[in-house]
Amino acid sequence: MLIMTTVIVTMSSIVQIVVKWKKKPLWSQIFCVAPECWQPDVRKTPVLFKQELQNEEAKEGKQVKLTCELSKPDTPVKWMKGDTVLCASEKYEFKQRGTVAELIIRDVKSVDAGEYTCSTGELKTTARVKVNGRQS
């Protein structure tokens, strides 16, 4: 039979729960109940951009690829042109493999020129796309 002692130490708004086992269990589950207003402060390692977006240039009718690299794999990102959130379509394709996120803009036109942003919610990186007219 396992016997445990729980000690709660309160320092201002910090609560620490220490569990001491008389005999080390093979496995255990510990449940804590907190008031609804309590918000845990779970500290995570922040996601950083290892490689930021670079400005790109393309001729009308071609495609442009914007690429950035994150410090954590499969981090959800959102792509924007200016203040408009982009959605996957025939025009825009999003790819994400591991730590690399890509936006592919197909069949670029002059209206596609502007600033594009990749955002993790906490951080963002922005690059400018320039579109050159077709040469005859």
UniProtKB/TrEMBL annotation:
What is any one of the record's Gene Ontology cellular component terms?
A: cytoplasm
Residues annotated as domain Ig-like: 40-130
Cited PROSITE patterns: IG_LIKE (PS50835)
Give the subcellular location.
Answer: Cytoplasm
- Tell me which stretches of the chain form a coiled coil: none
One Pfam match: I-set
InterPro entries, per this entry?
Ig-like_dom, Ig-like_dom_sf, Ig-like_fold, Ig_I-set, Ig_sub, Ig_sub2, Obscurin/Obscurin-like_Reg
Keywords attached to this Swiss-Prot or TrEMBL record, sorted alphabetically, are: Cytoplasm, Disulfide bond, Phosphoprotein
Q: What is this protein called?
A: Obscurin
**Originating organism:** Limosa lapponica baueri
